[in-house]
Amino acid sequence: HQETLLQQKNYHAALIQKLNQDIHSQQRHLEDAQKNKAALAALLKTLSQHSVVKPSRPFAQMRKKLPYPIRVDRQALKNMNQGVTFFADEGVLVTAVYPGKVVFSDWLKGYGLLLIIDHGRGFMTLYAHNQSLFKRKGQFVNQNETIAKVGHTGGIRQNGLYFEVRVRGKAVPPLGWLQSGI
What we know:
Number of strands: 10
Number of helices: 1
Radius of gyration: 21 Å
Order of helices and strands: HEEEEEEEEEE
Structural class: alpha+beta
Shape: elongated
Largest sheet: 10 strands, antiparallel
Oligomer: single chain
Distance between the termini: 65 Å
């Protein structure tokens, strides 16, 4: 009986050690995600202070009117962080939801290949985790113009496009800007 109790004690000790390691690993992952989010927020704050785009029609008038950046089924999207992820096959073409100027087109830790478009008056859209980017910083893009390909860069485990809408650096629910029908 004593031997069985000792085996159970050793098993529980090993289990507790494993759980503690898992907790520590998850805490590091959370800290990394928070640092990445803070880096993105700082980048967006800087970019929004230097906006010079003057749209012909203000972005603010586009609620529920913007096209989706990729074609997907409604079941293939998930609200994540401050935006939405559209799960799609690798290589699916990503299009700009509204005209604007590319203000960032590079790698950003936690977001992978990231493209940010300034639409003027503090409005920006973000397209993250891309396989490849077709536009460089400083280029102007039109609505529905191809800007990237869906990938899984920057820590996402599944192919998908992470999309955000920002107003003066603050995230707003992106689905409120997109057309209701896919």
